[in-house]
Amino acid sequence: MLKKYKTYSTILLLILSLSGILFLLSGGCLYAQNVEVEARIDSTSLLIGDQTNLSLKINQPDSINILFPEFADTITRSIEIINRTPPDTLHLDNRRLKITRKYKITCFDSGYHHIPPFIFHYNIDSITANLATQPIFLHVSRVDIAPSDSSKVIFDIKLPDKMPITLSEILPWIIGAVLIGLLVFIVVYYIKKRKKQEPLFKIKKPEEPPHVIAQRELDKLKEKKLWQKGKIKQYHSELTCIIRKYIERRYQTPAMEQTSNEIIEALIRSGFNNNTQFEQLKMLLFSADMVKFAKAKPLPDENETALLNAYVFVNETKQTWQKELDDQKEKTVLKSEEVEESKSLRVEEWKKGIVE
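Given the sequence above, the corresponding structure tokens read:
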């Protein structure tokens, strides 16, 4: 009887112990269901020597403490850790935490590499629990220049990258080319001027008045003494050419391309109304037309008179032109004086009105 009692007591004790263990395990499983761990890699395919980020994340209640896996300098035999960041904690709603830690990793062995699950440890009511992430596969490939068997061959991991050329890099060359081109141009320009015995820089003289040019040309024609040498047609051609150029500059009319009648009509339209000068100009132009087209032979006095009429026409129209400018200035001065006088009278009338 006593032996049966001991047997029942042992069975009951075992049942109670198993119940307690199951209760604690159920509590651990309950916590485990509220904890999430994750391992993620930015890129699962790399070239030899390239780098990528490995992130370990925990989503947990704030009432427990979970430990991250600890590493030295490597995660596996082939995968090296370059640097790591401290845990970054983010507080979520419902008293939960999201903790992230990042590792920068690299690999110098080509092929497929298996990263085993990462184990996180935490304690619940003096019971240690573990959580594991999913495994990760990393593919490390060779660059194109690597030989098939690189165990005994020294080669570059990667060829140098070709960077684009920037403006700041080529700008000094552009400026240098422009300066060299400018220097060559100056040397060639100087040599050409030196050979021609010309000054390096031409200074443009101020344009002379039309009457000054015409008088100088008439003086040269007089010195040639063409009609005295029997060159009567050439004499009258050059004489009318001088007068036509003068009229063209003086009255802005294309006299070199007009007939004698067209020149007279153009002068009339421009306001020319001096009868004496008109007669002198008509006599000069029509006498030249008779010599050039009708082969007339003027007397010596007529040749002298033609040159004299040219001098008189230039001088008279020059004086008239200058007189017109002087009259215009005088009219402007008189008008300003009249305006000032009118203002003075208005001021006096205004003052007189105030006094009255």
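The radius of gyration is 57 Å. Try to locate this feature in the token string yourself.
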